[in-house]
Amino acid sequence: MRKLERREEEEERKLVHCCLANYENVRQNSSMLLGVCSVCCKFWAGPERKPVG
To answer: Has residue 43 been placed in a domain?
Structure first.
C-alpha cells in the first residue's frame, strides 16, 4: 500500500518537473512535448498559467 503511494508521488514529481522544464517549449512549439507536457501543465499550473492549446 505504502509503496504504491510512494510511486504515485514520484510520478507526480515527474509531471511537475516536466511542466516546469518544458512549459516554455510547450507554449512556443507544437512538437511531441505538447502531447506529454501540455496536459501536466494544465493540471499543475492552474487556470492562470494554462498553456495555449
So the answer is: yes
